[in-house]
Specification:
Number of strands: 0
Number of helices: 5
Strand content: under 5%
Helix content: over 70%
Largest sheet: none
Shape: flat
Number of domains: 2
Structural class: mainly alpha
């Protein structure tokens, strides 16, 4: 029962917050500094989601070693991104290297 009320309450709050922006539309404007700060939100959220999966893939301890395929593949993806600056190439290199490292380590 408590979980149901919690989920319903969060849903109502989320809908109300989003409805404010739809109802007010163009009448609501943010200062330039806030618009600039909001542009960093997607990158920040993705980093917050991905970093724990790379550094602690099993959810307990940090695995900062050469037997962590997630860490090695992310390093490959960073290098490919820095050298190529192509998003699809970076994704493909990261995925391929992850599967390769995982295959090597689990043999």
């Amino acid at each position: 029962m408590n979980y149901t009320l919690l989920i319903l309450g969060m849903a109502v709050i989320t809908v109300l917050i989003k409805a404010i922006f739809f109802i007010l539309g163009d009448r609501l404007s943010f200062p330039a500094w806030l618009n600039q700060a909001l542009s960093f939100v997607p990158v920040t959220v993705l980093t917050a989601i991905i970093t724990p999966m790379i550094l602690a893939p099993h959810g307990e301890n940090l695995e900062l070693n050469l037997h962590n395929p997630q860490l090695l593949a992310s390093l490959v993806a960073v290098v490919v991104c820095l050298l190529g600056r192509r998003q699809l190439l970076t994704i493909a290199a990261g995925l391929l290297s992850f599967f390769l490292f995982q295959w090597i380590f689990t043999g």
